[in-house]
Input
Amino acid sequence: MQKRFVFKLAAVAALSIAAIAPVAAANQSPVKVAAIVELSGGGASSGTQFNNGLQLAIKEINAAGGILGRKIEVTTNDTTTQPSVALALTKKAIDQDVFAIFGPVFSGSINVSMKESQKAGIPNFTGGEAANITTQGNPYIFRTSFTQATAMPKAANYIKAAKIKNLAIIFVNNDFGKGGLDMMKKALAGSDTKIVSEISTDGGQIDFSAPVIKAKQSQADALFVYVNEDESARALKELRKQGWTKPVIGETTLTGQKVIDLAGEAANGAVGHVGLTADAPIPALLNYKVKYARAYGHETDHNGIKGYTGVYILKAAIEKVGKFDREAVTKAMHGIKIDATKNPGVLMNVGFDDKGDLDRESFLVEVKNGKQVVVSVLPPLNPDNVNVKVGQKSAKAGEKAPAKK
Amino acid sequence: MSKRNIFLGVIFAAMVLCLPPFLKNYGVYMFSTWLIYVIATMGLNLTVGYAGQKSLGHAAFFGIGAYTVAIMMKAGISWWLGLPTAVVLCFVLGLVLGFPALRVQTIYLAFATLGFNTAVFLVMRNEEWLTGGTFGLNGIPRPAIFGFDLKGQAGSVMHLFGVEFPLAKDLAFYYFVLAATAIATALLWGLLRSPWGKAFQALRDNPIRAESLGIDTRNYTLLSFAIGAVYAGVAGALFASLVDFIEPAPFAVGASIMMYLMVVVGGAGYFLGPLVGALIGMLIPEWIRDVAPSLANWYLPIFGATVVVMMVWLPDGLMSIPDRIRAKRDSRLASAKRAEATSEIAAIAAQSEGVAQ
Amino acid sequence: MSRWGKSPLKRAKRLRLKSNQTGGELPSAPIPLPALGERVFVLGVLQMIDFLQLVFSGFATGSIYALAALGFTLLWQAAGTINFAQGEFVMLPAFIMLAFLSYGAPLPVAFVLTALVSTVVLGWAFKRAIVDPLFKYGMMQIVVASIGLSIVMKNAMRAGYSAEAHPFPSLFSDQLFSIAGVHISTNDVGTLVCALVVVFGVQAFLAKTVTGRAMQAVAQNTESATVLGINVPRMIFYTFAINAVLACVAAMLVTPVYLAKFDMGDSLGTKAFFAAIIGGFNNSRGALLGGLIVGVSENLAAAYMSPAYKDAVALVVFMIVILFRPQGLLGRKEERKV
Output
């Protein structure tokens, strides 16, 4: 009875070695990166978009000759939206001696896996938005999305400017939602706007009648909804059903095209601050949107942009340093300012601070007639760090970028 | 123990002892995780396979063990104190979970344990002051044994036959886990060989008859849950130190169901069942991810289909294959003998007929 | 922030003010405080309205749980099958209907076609391939096989088709109206009515028709049923077929709200189990009662207690029922066979 088992064990062990061993062999020509993304589980939609975006970018870069003459070779791994799996996959990527890691997208997962990449000194790009990702002193983590610490103040500015006295907040009970709630509270502290109700909801929650009733009972003048996409759609539908006529404000997860598709009419009138939108009136973004749709047959969203721009940001940093040195590239990333006219792949001018957070223009959008309409373009929090003039349109993507920033 | 089994056992021991130094971080990490799940599923095997109970809430004890150790270590208390605390806590809670088993039967018991797991999960997720909620607990250190810190150093190297092999950082902890697994296995083996083990099996096969024979089914029922829970708790304590960060997700009902499937696929009631089951549930998906990433997406459907197919053709699990082969062979021998005997009788009958005529 | 944070006095004051508002502006002149009795009355009425709102929403959601739970109990009664894949049995027809819809079929046609497909796949194939071979081994094997099946269905859908949520058209127009302050949508009403019609229809079928009575006989005592000349395998097949169709109906009613996604079966399946157990595992009306209890208690818990623990209420009721009345609120006690 043990014989069978032992054979199995031997087979597995042998195959594990066989799988890991070739990787140890030095492979000089292409530069290796790992994509560790959520391709299944709760984060599947975000992770798949992020992955598609970065694969598209890699394809383009390789077609144009690669980075400093070397093509990019990417291994894709599915974290199944579990932080422990993300951790294991990061260890694997470290074993494979990759130059950089892209993902995971979900804040819960990146918070865990980035510790591994930090120990190994590998630059790690993520789309996660929870504020605490960049406050833990990890020099190797870089965001391709706004941190909540930057995004919430912008949303809060809008709320303060709209003279909203009492605000109710519906948030999702996880890293992402709680992080956003904390940042919003900080941003509104000391202002005229009081938060009269904090309503927690579950990830994947179906029935929003109770949260909406609580919001109504709190007598708030406006509602800030900070939950994931599917739940945003359900919340919007419930709000409409219960006759909520006051403003509904949110972030990227409230006003995305997917949410609009799912919520239908109920989404009209929702206002959101979005760091990235595929519908911004910026030619580079629109161009990217077309390319994505052609490559994958469906619409892109902000997660796709995060993945796409991430690769080009890495490329810009490597080109700035001039060689494939992880430490040097990491140092160069802190304080880098990437001009979108010279690096069209980043779509918009972007600058990074010493914590790994980026600053960029963002947008205020409103959903009108089932489409996301950009109402205004908001400047970066610190325009000097980004080297951009407010309202500047980036160059058309598709122009080959000279390899210098 | 036959010579063949001893030989196989030695090969297996050699593999788990000598293979890992040649693996990198990821391989060592996977082996460690596999062994931890072996410990946990051994406990479940006791409850479900040997004592015949139904437990779909095993991951809850896994989590309780992990969180107990993690919380205590974050408070500065040594792992070696955290472990017994986790053991005691799991034992007590296991007894508590055993009580519904006294009142309800089979499928209702399964649901009750499921409910227990959900309740524990909710507490883990919501009580942020204690468990860190969805943010979890971070930075859990490794224990030190006999003054030797198991944290491991990067860059240690082994020399063998004049060749330098870089050692994975987590290797020391792997051997610690291996030792723990060995001890746990030995203890369970001893338990099952003892009269207690027989009592558990009697409980599984026919509880009313067992009771009529004087076995206190109450106590044994409760004990089967409690001991199973303790194993899961120990596994959880090791898990916390291994992954350095814990959050509620690996301890939810889905994980319990996976553990149950691991036991069933391996073979409930077979001693080595958990070894095989954990291999299939843990190592195989990783191996597929490694070797054929495009297939990785399909791992779960294939696993589920395997479970379904196995239930139809091999309901007693993979470890029952040798028994089945043996049974087939025996029955073939028996029918051959019967055929022989029948022809002999026919020959004798023909003879006697001939005589009678 | 506690709902009751402000004193009833201030709350009543605001309520009174609110009832005077039109455009959301507060009137500037001070309003005299209403008398105590009036305040309490207004308070009570508004409480009542909220409560009714929650109860009614809970009914709508609960009626869907009831449909899934009903199929569950039927399978258990007639075929001794615990189907852990019940949630996925609702998910699959949802996607099949979406497929038919994308070919241009109108919703009712898509529903009928899907019902046919489900009867074959989820009814006949499920029975022949999984339940029949495993029946002699006992219940846990069937449970495990159904768990495996649910994993297959869920992940094959995710890997093979799509990981995203898809919108689903509603059978009823999404009109809103309010009765005395309680907001109701035609969707809610329609769902509730449909579910009730189906549940009572199945009940009537089982109790009043010959086939239905034969199915009940099979559920109670298979051997006697065979002796009486009832075609037992066929009756059992009918049970599976009915379960498949019930799952289709549930899919059509619930997916507009749940959104078609590969994991929509998870929470639905769990709630269906809870509902079936709470109501009574061997009673069809129990499924309806259980479903409504689960739906309403969730909502009330989310509004009046901690929303983070809202799942706990259904869970607590479930545990209490399991421990103290395992046959469920409306069920009959089952004997233990030696």
User: Anything to note?
Assistant: The two ends of chain C are 56 Å apart (CA to CA). Residues 1-6, 15-29 of chain C have pLDDT under 50 and may be disordered. The interface with chain B takes residues 82, 129-130, 133-134, 137, 139-145, 147-156, 158-160, 270, 273, 277, 306, 308-309, 311-312, 315, 318-319, 322-323, 326, 336, 338 of chain C (CB under 8 Å).
